[in-house]
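Tutorial sheet, problem 5. The two components below are modelled jointly, 456 residues in total.
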Amino acid sequence: MPYAVEQNEKFAAYAHPERLVSTEWLAAAIKSGAVARGELIVVESDEDVLLYETGHIPGAVKIDWHTDLNDDVARDYVDGAAFAELAASKGISRDSTVVIYGDKSNWWAAYALWVFTLFGHRDVRLLDGGRDKWIAEGRELTRERPAPARGSYPVVERDDAPIRAFKEDVLAHLGKPLIDVRSPEEYTGQRTHMPAYPEEGALRGGHIPTAASIPWARAAAPDGTFRSREELEALYLGEAGLTPGDDVVAYCRIGERSSHTWFALKYLLGFESVRNYDGSWTEWGNAVRVPIVKGAERGSLPVPAGA
Amino acid sequence: MTTQALPSALAAIVDDFQALSEPERLQLLLEFSEGLPELPDRLKDHPELLEQVVECQSPLFLTIETDNGGGPVRLFFKAPAEAPTTRGFAGVLHEGLDGLSAGEILSVPDDMPELLGLTRAITPLRMRGMTAMLGRIKRKVAAASRVRG
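Model answer (structure tokens):
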């Protein structure tokens, strides 16, 4: 059964306030026993596979973006059976309210939330500010691993089309808005990976023609919370030039940073049609004969052959 | 590859990891992360003396020190507490290699990290950081040996 939605002034301005909870709200919910009773499932999802083990929010279970959510053979997400097993083992049922939080302004938490959404999990929310804000506020952490009662989760077939774009979809989308959320150096083609991150191998640098450059972290305030509706509008409607109702595709390097932007566009600004291109630059920058623009300008669409 | 070729301290660590189940290996890596010694003050105040290993997912800085007589090589690492996996790799290399001779360190096979049996639990992507760390240590040790002639 869905858990009550948080009401506050900041969230009320967003298109879907029910997708966020604050640290105060979560602390109160834990205190009330809702997490211990399994009415609310709290999930930590971090970049570092051991960070949860160093201390986590009391009652939180861990889901690792890579080992739990990615298929370990094909470059794809887990299938319905594996997701059902994962969810049930974490105490999650199909109608559970799930609150996800993580490190780095919820970058990986947003990615996990996006994967939950591929399976149509209805009530999944982010903890605004994530792990860092919880810790900065001096709230309780524990190393105690909960042993949740098994949830009941049906095998649901993933429905990728509404929120996931493949390379062919992006080629067909060219001409409509694209948001590139990588660093400016990656956008211009000066480098093909994030500073200080592993080189995952892209043979070409640059961006998809016409994509606007809005690095993902600009949607977050210094404390890791999402920026206000007004600030997000200035960023995406103003700077990126989106118009309400646009069909948008966001991408990064492997689809994780763009999940954060996907969340902001979809749930905070209310764009109905936003897709995350998870193949992102590690696919596009290696694909044969796809158009690429180098430099700081968005560039223009290639003229189709024979035109 | 067997552990026979490894220096004894490193071989003992590999044996410890291999004796455990996968979840227990992660726990052991966490213990190594917690056991990584702090930098001595002379390095703490001079971050420019350390080199960043960019292949690691989180910031990791390291340096080595050797005397001029072919004596023991000392290893120093710096990684934030928020990066326990990276710290754990550094902890393993510190405990396994600190104080050995240049020759002993250079004889460690480049793919030694795979012997820890963590690749599946951690993912190959993350293991790359440890392999890069070992590679960087070996390059620095080799360069220092050459300088000494």
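Marking note: Chain A has a mean pLDDT of 94. Full credit if you identified this.
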